[in-house]
Amino acid sequence: MTFEEEAFISYAHLDNQCLIEGKQGWVANFHRILQIRVGQFLGKEPHIWRDPKLQGNDIFADTLMERLQKVAALVAVLSPRYVKSEWTLRELTEFWRAAELSTGVRIGDKSRVFKILKTPVPLEKHPPQLQPLLGYEFFKVDPETGHVHELDLMYGAEAQTEFLQKVDDVAKDLCELVQAIERGEDPKAAGKPPVYLAEATRDLTDAHDSIRRDLQDHAHPVAPPENLPALQADLEAYVRAQLARCSMSIHLIGRNYGIVPEEWIESLPEIQYRLAADRAKGGDFTRLVWIPPGLQVQDERQLKFIERLRTDPGLQKGTDLLETPLEDLRTLIYTRLKPPASKPVPNPEAAGLTQVYFIYDQRDQDAVAPWKDYLFNQGFEVLTPIFEGDEAEIREDHEASLQTCDAVLIYYGAGNECWLRRKLREIQKIGGYGRTHPMRAAAITLAAPLSPQKQQFRTHEATVIPQFDGFSPDPLRPFIQQVRNAASQQAGG
């Protein structure tokens, strides 16, 4: 089905009044830029319109209603005035009714109604049709004061840049909707499973929007397509259903604990992560957790949640946890979404080599020299991490070493326990990196600097070798013998 016009902008005329005399109002600027960007994306002049003169006394059925039936999408500019206006609510109701009589209000995961949040309005005051819809926020909330600042072209370069970026998001989504309607299909359902982007707290709004934008730009559907249900009875069932459609979930963990639904004790971010952990038990599912580096948290509940993410093996299994710049998360997302290589990973045993992957923190490069020399002198091919290059190259080399090595030795020196546990999780997941032969041995060397955490460290996942006084070959010999015995058994088998 095709429509004669791409969109109708529904707004309260009070919201188009400019503070500076002689300048265009907010809605007029939004309309102008949206028109340009949609045309550039579609490659043709679009028909996007609004009624600049309605006073509530025009003949509604003979003018507006007739055109609403020919419009692909309604763009509702929400504000305190919008939700009080009988006229704007009637526009929304009549468009909704016309949509249900044609293609329906939803096309795949896309709604034909776009919710533009010019000014904050409590969710319970949104028109009922709009409450479930995700909105495009054209304002910022100061995390320290709670003051709201609208994004407007007149408020300086930074606000102008963010305003243009938000309009760009609306334009891209509107183009995808129009193309989906014209083709009679969801343009993002071409063999790519959705990615679940968990709801984040307001302090991470920019990062959350950026990741959503990146996924959509790479033609990956993003779930959930609408706001999470508010009621306890509906929330878990809805999130589980959305996760079941997905191959990956992404969780951005900020300094705030987040909204706690009524009659619950967990926040929305914590609930979504717990349900994603349940989803991962079914296999074929990846969880990525990102915590901004240097995050300062004061809420005791959030501190406990983050500590569980870092240390609880039950939560960590099948999870990548990053406390690095956001760009690293982007890199990892597309590494995980990349289809597996079709060519088989070569087995180093065929070449007669025994490879030991010696993992250490970059700060320990000088300290580990005696261990590297000893392993090499034992006849092993020693693989070591690389630290130069972009994040994608470094991770690709790391995963290639986990694919091919026969044994792993981790040097726990300058790195913290979070770093160590992350390395252990990566070893747990080596099957997902394409290994074709079993790991013979895994060990951890506990080295200086000495700390109570290191002294008390225990794990069943690897042999623990204390060497706080520096290098000595004797503590390493059981590990060396384990590698050799496994090699002999495999050769005999």
Tell me about this structure.
By secondary structure, this protein is α/β, with parallel strands linked by helices. It has 3 domains: 187 residues, Toll/interleukin-1 receptor homology (TIR) domain (Rossmann fold, 3-Layer(aba) Sandwich), CATH 3.40.50.10140; 150 residues, Rossmann fold (3-Layer(aba) Sandwich); 145 residues, 3-Layer(aba) Sandwich (Rossmann fold). The protein has a 5-stranded parallel sheet, sandwiched between helices. A 5-stranded parallel sheet has the order 11-10-12-13-14, with helices on both faces. The longest helix has 27 residues. The N and C termini lie far apart (64 Å). About 1% of the residues have low confidence.
CATH domain topology of the largest domain:
Rossmann fold
How many separate domains? 3
Unreliable sequence segments: 186-190
- The CATH class assignment of the largest domain is Alpha Beta
Label the overall shape: elongated
Termini separation: 64 Å
Radius of gyration: 28 Å
Main sheet characteristics: 5 strands, parallel
Number of strands: 19
Structural class: alpha/beta
Helicity level, as a percent range?
25-40%
CATH superfamily of the largest domain: Toll/interleukin-1 receptor homology (TIR) domain
Assign the CATH architecture of the largest domain. 3-Layer(aba) Sandwich
Mean pLDDT: 85
Please state roughly what percent of the residues sit in beta strands, choosing from under 5%, 5-15%, 15-25%, 25-35%, 35-45% or over 45%. 15-25%
Q: Which strand order do you get reading across the main beta sheet? A: 2-1-3-6-7
Number of helices: 15
